[in-house]
Amino acid sequence: MDTIVNQIVALGVPGLVLLVAMAVTGWAGAAAITAGLAMLGGPFGMLGGIAVLGILAMISKGLAEYGFEAIFTATVEELKKKGKTTSEIENEINSYPISRELKLKIKEYLSESK
Q1: What's the mean pLDDT when you consider all of the chain?
Q2: Buried b (16+ CB within 10 A) or exposed e, 45-55
Q3: Distance CA 34, CA 106 (A)
Q4: Which end of the chain is more exposed for a tag (fewer CB within 10 A), N or C?
Q5: Closest CA to 54 of 12, 104, 4, 98
Q6: pLDDT for residue 111 is more than 90
Q7: pLDDT in tens, 27-45
Q8: Structural domain range at position 33
Q9: What does the pLDDT read at residue 11?
């Protein structure tokens, strides 16, 4: 088991996400990997799942290095440089299929970063 854990640790946060996605599928072996990646990729299938894991790796590395607040603030600033207003960002957040609590938390951070 130590060998398996060390391999997952080498993958970092994306490894944990893939592990959970594979467990949720109810399959084993290659079928679990295929189904897990397809689930993560949504309409883009396995390739989308691989892309999601890549993005997750980049984001988790950034969070570990700079912290959430710094990345969130810099991202909002870049969106504003590209011409988006705070209200446009909030409207876009409202259109996403995420929980009400998460939407409120994002809006709270937005109001703090003004």
Answers
A1: 91
A2: ebebbbebbee
A3: 32
A4: N
A5: 12
A6: no
A7: 999 999 999 999 999 999 9
A8: 1-66
A9: 81
